[in-house]
UniProtKB/TrEMBL annotation:
This is Nuclear transport factor 2 family protein. It comes from Fulvivirga marina. Residues 7-100 form the SnoaL-like domain.
Amino acid sequence: MDTKKLVKAWFDQWESGDFLRLPVTENFRHTSPFGTIYGKKAYFDLVEKNKDKFLGQHFDLHDGIYETNKACVRYTARQGDDFSLDVSEWYYFKNNLIEEIVAYYHIGEIREERKLQE
């Protein structure tokens, strides 16, 4: 399967709510501003405990770069009428599955010392 199809399968499974069929390796790693989760089982357990935060989302994919063993996708995740999150993610593949994702997004207020001055 090519990398674009694997990324599409990732988003399709999330939108359907069938996260147990995500195309990931047993050693899957997911890194985000919240930290790194190691292993498919640990990732699925976290999703199971937090279904209200993970499921029921729709994804608007804006850009993608697809190579043989990696891809980068920029998208907006939406859940209900009041949640929207802009994300860029790197995907790394092994044996036609996703082995690692590194996600970049903003999760909070900007500290006062980091705000731009007018």
